[in-house]
Amino acid sequence: MILGCHVKMNAPLFLEGSVKEALSYGCDALMLYTGAPQNTVRKPITDMHVREAQQLMEQNHIPMERMIIHAPYLINPANSVKPEVQELAHDFLISEVNRTAEIGAKYLVLHPGSYTTTDPETGIRTCTALLNSIGTLPGNVVICLETMAGKGSEIGTSFEQLEEILSGLDHPEHYGICLDTCHINDAGYDVHDFDAVLDEFDHVIGLRNLKVIHLNDSKNDRGAHKDRHANIGQGTISFDTLHAIASNKRTEHITKILETPYIDKKPPYAIEIAMLRSGKYDQTRLEALRDTEKPQT
User: Fold this and answer.
1) How far apart are CA 244 and CA 238, in angstroms?
2) With bands split at pLDDT 50, 70 and 90, how would you rate the model's confidence at 295?
3) pLDDT at residue 284 is higher than 90
4) How many percent of the chain have pLDDT more than 70?
5) Phi-psi map region of 280: left, alpha, beta (phi>0 left; psi -120 to 50 alpha)
6) What pLDDT score does 291 carry?
7) What is the pLDDT of residue 289?
């Protein structure tokens, strides 16, 4: 299994600190933002300990393609209603693509966006046009469109919608898909039969285009269209199903990233990753993270 999780990137070590955090959880992959996801403020790449992070990954035999970059939610490629939102999406996405290349990472995960007050087809056309407008991507960077749960006016909630975007791109070799297990469950796919999901994905999009998997449990029933992640084994998907997905031979070469919630402000990743690697669910260890002390009066 190639397993990682979403890690922080803070001063003073920045990327080097991100890699150290991932290693402390037993990861052999990681995912991060290149800056705060809620704004456009970004540190220069030259200040982010890139070489130190690369050396640390090399020492631990982790290829740089397993450092996944996640684009901030500020980027909405599907919004055609507000020109200023489109301009921000265009300019900021180019910036994030270039930063991904400078870091030496390969995969940049991007939400396809929301059509707001128009309709799904308009959103799909708008997203495709925006991606084409950024031209060729530097180096070997691949933008991975993420499968979405269908919350609000999101696009990318079906394999068919994602394929429609991919088929309209001028440079499809620089694009792929990030499959999120919570999102596709909430979108209506039966993740308990993951091979059938992979068969459908292969038929519609092609498995060669599946580049990253987000491995998350869900707090919602199948088809709820809500997008609320749960800790591994504590949601409706179940530990056994997620372990089967993590160990599926058809996707064993694909990096899998956990985005599960903290438990009482404590990261659960070391426990969750150890459980997935062993194939044994240990609720006691997860529950031990909960703060059971009574507040002082």
Assistant:
1) 10
2) low
3) yes
4) 98
5) beta
6) 78
7) 93
Token pair recorded at residue 240: 């056994």
With CA atoms as reference, report the closest residue to 181 among 147, 219, 224, 145.
147
Residues in the chain: 297
**What angle is formed at CA 150 by the lines to CA 145 and CA 154, rounded to 5 degrees?**
60
Structure tokens given for 112: 């396809």
Cα separation, 261 vs 110, whole angstroms: 20
Residue appearing with tokens 């309709």: 119
Mean pLDDT of 193-197: 98
For residue 12, whether the previous peptide bond is cis, meaning omega lies within 30 degrees of 0, is yes
What is the signed CA dihedral for 82, 87, 88, 89, rounded to 10 degrees?
90
Q: Say how far residue 135 (Cα) sits from the centre of its chain.
A: 23
HSE-up (13 A, CA, CB side) for residue 182: 24
**Rounded-to-integer distance, Cα 30 and Cα 51, Å:** 16
How far apart are alpha carbons 263 and 232 in whole angstroms?
Answer: 12
Nearest to 181 by CA among 107, 231, 141: 231
Q: What is the per-residue pLDDT across 100-111, written as a single tens digit (0 to 9) for each?
A: 999 999 999 999
Class of residue 294 by CB neighbours under 10 A (exposed 0-12, middle 13-18, buried 19+): exposed
